[in-house]
Amino acid sequence: MDHIDFLGTPIPNAGPVFFVALAIHITAGITCVSCGAIAALTGKASPRHRRFGRVYLWAWAVVYLTLTVMSAIRWRENVHLFVIGSLGFTAALTGYANRRHRPDIHILAMGASYVLLLTGFYVDNGPHLPLWDRLPTVAYWLLPALIGSPLIARAIARRRHRREPAQA
Predict the structure, then answer these.
(1) Per the confidence metrics, is the pTM higher than 0.85?
(2) How many CA atoms lie within 13 A of 38 on its CB side?
(3) CA torsion through residues 129, 64, 153, 123, sign
(4) Cα dihedral 115, 57, 32, 20 in deg (nearest 10)
(5) CA distance linking residue 17 with residue 73, whole number of Å
(6) 34-61 pLDDT tens trace
(7) β-strands 3-6, 9-12: how paired?
(8) Fewest CB within 10 angstroms: 14, 23, 56, 119, which?
(9) By the 8 A CB rule, do 107 and 94 touch?
(10) Which alpha helices (H) appear in 12-136, and where do they start and end?
(11) pLDDT, position 161
(12) Which residues, in sequence order, are CB contacts of 24 under 8 Å at separation 6+?
């Protein structure tokens, strides 16, 4: 058997190292999704935004580390996910590095890292999820960006609007 069926989702039967990496990967991914959303929805520069943002970045590091392990084990099947993850983690690091002095870059890069996180999830799992399994494959690749891009643009525009001096 080349996979194990878990709640309707096929899990590759690629040995114990892969399975442990996958379990840690799922936990870190859920942490990323929840902490990223909280950080995005809280006041910028608030202690809560910084705390959840830091957890988001560290969880992304764990997602990337476990993705690298799983990709090394199943390169042919995972190379596209490794590329998405590499771009996403690079975006998260870029966003973090620009958090103080270039806030527009911070917002853009952190938003892109979140979009790429979701893209990787849906590309890999969309065909096995209720309702998502009815969508064409291209939707898994495009929907996160189609939904996320306007939200990122709105966040940047709102930040710029708050910084403009009042017109007399």
Answers:
(1) yes
(2) 18
(3) negative
(4) 120
(5) 9
(6) 999 999 999 878 999 999 999 999 999 9
(7) antiparallel
(8) 23
(9) no
(10) 16-41, 47-73, 75-97, 103-125
(11) 82
(12) 62, 66
